Amino acid sequence: MSDKKVILSGIQPSGALTLGSYLGAIKNWVKLSDEYDCYYMIVDMHAITSRQEASVLRKTPFEQLAQYIACGLDPEKNTLFIQSHVPAHAQLAWVLNCYTMFGELSRMTQFKDKSGKNVNNINAGLFTYPALQAADILLYQADLVPVGADQKQHIELTRDIAVRFNGIYGDVFKLPEPYIPTVGARIMDLQAPTNKMSKSEINDGGCILMMDKPEDIKRLFKRAVTDSETCVRYDVDNKPGISNLMQIYSVCTGKGFEEIEKEFDGKGYGDFKLRVGEAVVELLQPIREEATKLLADKAYLENIFKNGAEKASYVANKTLRKVYKKVGFIEKT
Ligand code: TYM
Question: Is residue 196 annotated as a catalytic residue, yes or no?
Answer without folding.
Answer: yes
